[in-house]
Amino acid sequence: LKEKTEDLKRERQLAEDLLHQMLPKSVAKQLRKRQKVEAENYDQVTIFFSDIVGFTSIAASCTPLQVVEMLNNLYVCFDSRIESYDVYKVETIGDAYMVVSGLPERNGSRHADEIAKMSLDLVAAVRQVVIPHMPMGRLQLRAGIHTGPCVAGVVGYKMPRYCLFGDTVNTASRMESTSLPQKIHISSATYDALLADDAYEIEARGEIEVKGKGKMKTYWLLGNKNYSVQN
């Protein structure tokens, strides 16, 4: 009976660990208790989007199985690295990677700093990811960051998803889509949030036309004076 009880505890822990990889712990706890998860408003968070430069043409040159292997290598690399930061991985859609800081657990004014350090790490890390069917090739990341308010909540009953909503999400996505290879494109809101630390190397990009937003003054995040990117 004791052995069976221990086996049951281990199985339950494995199930909980898997659930916590798919949903925030606080959300998973409410769902296990069959409680309704209320959507929550967050005054300030920082959102990161990235995708792979030329992914469509890379995918066209290989088999579906090779695409899966390539993306798995990439995401295993990214997932292991973001554990060093106070961030939450929201989702991956194809080659797109979305991460947020400041929710579901609020972290004061640290969210922009956490995402900035993480993004510098990921842009460096992507160059080390091997493409199995293209051993001489190297992936390039295009990244974008924006800071602002948003709403987060669980959507759906079967395979429930923890989703983010609001203009901050759209603007962060625009920062990514208007970025350049191996560059981190940040909005003026993120720039202002990072100024408080005075630790970042940032270069003005100037005004650019952003779909749905008009002209926006944006910047390139180049590095952190006090932070060495993990090898």
TrEMBL record:
<dbReference type="Pfam" id="PF00211">
    <property type="entry name" value="Guanylate_cyc"/>
</dbReference>
<comment type="similarity">
    <text>Belongs to the adenylyl cyclase class-4/guanylyl cyclase family.</text>
</comment>
<keyword id="KW-0141">cGMP biosynthesis</keyword>
<keyword id="KW-0325">Glycoprotein</keyword>
<dbReference type="InterPro" id="IPR029787">
    <property type="entry name" value="Nucleotide_cyclase"/>
</dbReference>
<keyword id="KW-0675">Receptor</keyword>
<keyword id="KW-0472">Membrane</keyword>
<dbReference type="GO" id="GO:0005886">
    <property type="term" value="C:plasma membrane"/>
</dbReference>
<keyword id="KW-0812">Transmembrane</keyword>
<dbReference type="GO" id="GO:0007168">
    <property type="term" value="P:receptor guanylyl cyclase signaling pathway"/>
</dbReference>
<keyword id="KW-0732">Signal</keyword>
<feature type="domain" description="Guanylate cyclase">
    <location>
        <begin position="46"/>
        <end position="176"/>
    </location>
</feature>
<dbReference type="GO" id="GO:0005525">
    <property type="term" value="F:GTP binding"/>
</dbReference>
<keyword id="KW-0547">Nucleotide-binding</keyword>
<keyword id="KW-1133">Transmembrane helix</keyword>
<dbReference type="InterPro" id="IPR050401">
    <property type="entry name" value="Cyclic_nucleotide_synthase"/>
</dbReference>
<keyword id="KW-0342">GTP-binding</keyword>
<dbReference type="GO" id="GO:0004383">
    <property type="term" value="F:guanylate cyclase activity"/>
</dbReference>
<dbReference type="GO" id="GO:0001653">
    <property type="term" value="F:peptide receptor activity"/>
</dbReference>
<dbReference type="GO" id="GO:0035556">
    <property type="term" value="P:intracellular signal transduction"/>
</dbReference>
<dbReference type="InterPro" id="IPR018297">
    <property type="entry name" value="A/G_cyclase_CS"/>
</dbReference>
<keyword id="KW-0456">Lyase</keyword>
<protein>
    <recommendedName>
        <fullName>guanylate cyclase</fullName>
        <ecNumber>4.6.1.2</ecNumber>
    </recommendedName>
</protein>
<dbReference type="InterPro" id="IPR001054">
    <property type="entry name" value="A/G_cyclase"/>
</dbReference>
<dbReference type="GO" id="GO:0004016">
    <property type="term" value="F:adenylate cyclase activity"/>
</dbReference>
